[in-house]
Amino acid sequence: MNENIKRFSYPYIVWISIVIVIPVLLIFLYSFIQSTGEPVVFRFTLQNYRDFLDPIFLNVLWHSFIIAAISTAICLLLGYPVAWVVSRLKPHRQSSALMLFILPMWINMLLRTYAWITILSRQGILNKILARLGMGPFHMMYTDFSVSLGMVYNFLPFMILPIYTSILKVDGHLIDAARDLGASGSHVFRKVMLPLTMPGIITGVTMVFLPAMSTFVIPQLLGGGQYIMIGNLIERQFLLTGDWHFGSAISVVLMAFILLSVWAMKRFDGGGSQAGTAGKGALPW
Amino acid sequence: MANEVLIEIKDLTREFDGDIVLKGIDLIIHKNEFVTLLGPSGCGKTTLLRIIGGFDDPTSGSVLFDGMDLLKVPAYRREINTVFQKYAIFPHLNVYDNIAFGLRMKNLPESVVEEKVRRMLKMIRLEKQAKRNIDALSGGQQQRIAIARALVNQPKVLLLDEPLGALDLKLRQEMQYELKEMQRESGITFVFVTHDQEEALTMSDTIVVLNDGLIQQIGSPVDIYNEPRNRFVANFIGESNIARGKMLKDRRVEFEGHVFDCVDRGFNEDEEVDVVIRPEDLKIVSSGEGAFKGFVDAVIFKGVHYEIIVMVEDREYVIHSTQNANVGELVGMVVAPSDIHVMELGV
């Protein structure tokens, strides 16, 4: 590539190093050391990781994974049909429909999540409506339900957009061809649409699963003080307990866990379709 | 050729948002026939094909297939397969799986699928590429896969939507020949859509000339070429000289100020007509001998023949001749009675 153009990337490289590479390295470093009481003397240790093997913490990790996985699955089940419907609209309608999904993201995420409290709480809007119908009241706040709902609500656009893009990329003639060759509606979907939109699905799942796995705001607001996910655990180590070493160790575990999940997803895609250039995912890996 | 009717199309129309694309099509397609729908882009030929294939519904009219109402049958249950314009080969499947797609949809045992696919691969000479990805193949190879993928299902009708359009000239001519062979061997009815008149003349048993949503003429290639029914057909199929004339009586036509013998009958006395003469049917003679004469305006060497443009007053005549002529020379032209084709006056 042209030297001159390359030069433009230098500020970016510096920026990335300062705000991403160095902090991550520091977290790594912190997770493997122990303070000795003296200001600058540290000792290498695996104790932070050993601490994490406690069933309580492993349970938190497992629970976080389950909630994130369920939320991601719901996003996929909701997002795919929505993306499909939007892609079938007339072109000028498509952009306004997409706008509807993106618009809430212009509002601060905290506010949007707070709003759910007034809807879901015991004296909330939903319970009042149900009471009119002679039902309830239901206990909805501070449960797996409210946390998952918050995640689905916040992260759904990240599922819809990549899937929508991948559906648009599929040549309509391929659907005609499949029907021509005897494929019924469900066969067209399973044998043609699904494999061809798999890159979009993978991207969407990744983009929802990553924040769902590590978020601490949503479980804190909608789950309440007793509700602990791995993100909350890390937050507490840094802000409440002040044990940066243990917090760093949990962060590294979480990172490893997420990388492993993404890698597994990629493997799954490789086995599911031998797609060549049929629209690679939007993400560069 | 068996003359059994396979598809019967009656008064078919198709309207898109007030735009009438098909304006009442009546067409009969026989078993084992190679039918070509020929016309310029936008004439409705692809729409007609899509309706037969089940990818579009007509606004009105009927299509019978073996005597049964075809329009009630969804695309995936029709005994019709299609070769799409851009091949529409599944990019996520390899060569083998693409061809096997239709058979697997029918839940045939894998051993039968294998046998049929192998036979097809052999026919299209891509046995070695069976496990290849589609994007590793050339346009001609993809084209053959698209045909094999459709033919392997042994449909009663194969629809081909300008399948040779994307190929270069040499490959296109080769494929024309191959397609014709495949059709003869398989005994499957082919409905072929093209805007290329040469392709239509080379391959078809029957040509259906379409323009502006209406059938202009149906006939064998020889009929269509020699006896175009109107000005559009004459112009679209091959090059033509078209002159205004007057039918004096049966077998006597007047144009360019001369009375010619011809073979056409059945017109009214003194009816105004269009007279079609193919460029290769006009002969240049010395100015004294010709029935009518003009000045040579241009001579273009075309390889097999010279294309000679002769101006008769302000009217241009194109002549294909193996003999050269000199620009500016006054020449005479003659034409045999059987080479004069009289048509109803076009617009």
Would you mind describing this structure in some detail?
The complex is a heterodimer of chains A (285) and B (347). By secondary structure, chain A is mainly alpha-helical. Chain A has one domain (55-280): MetI-like (MetI-like fold, Orthogonal Bundle), CATH 1.10.3720.10. Helix content of chain A is 74%, strand content 2%. Chain A has helices at residues 3-7, 10-31, 47-52, 55-88, 91-102, 109-120, 125-132, 144-169, 172-180, 185-214, 217-223, 230-241, 244-272, and strands at residues 33-35, 42-44. Chain A has a two-stranded antiparallel sheet. In chain A, strand 1 and strand 2 (42-44) form a beta hairpin. In chain A, helix 2 packs across helix 13 (244-272), helix 6 packs parallel to helix 11 and helix 9 (172-180) packs across helix 10. The two termini of chain B are 37 Å apart. Chain B has 347 residues and is of the alpha+beta class. Chain B has helices spanning 45-53, 95-105, 110-123, 139-151, 169-186, 197-203, 221-226, 231-236; strands at 5-16, 19-30, 34-38, 60-65, 68-69, 80-83, 157-161, 189-194, 206-211, 214-219, 241-249, 252-255, 258-261, 271-277, 283-286, 292-301, 306-312, 315-321, 330-334, 341-344. In chain B, a hairpin with a 2-residue loop joins strand 9 (206-211) and strand 10. The radius of gyration of chain B is 24 Å and the shape is elongated. In chain B, helix 3 packs across helix 4 (139-151). Chain B folds into two domains: 5-231, Rossmann fold; 239-344, Nucleic acid-binding proteins (OB fold (Dihydrolipoamide Acetyltransferase, E2P), Beta Barrel), CATH 2.40.50.140. Chain A binds chain B through residues 171, 173-174, 176-184, 187, 191-192, 195-196, 273-278, and chain B through 53-55, 74-77, 80-82, 84-86, 88-94, 101-102, 105-106, 133-136, 149-150, 153.
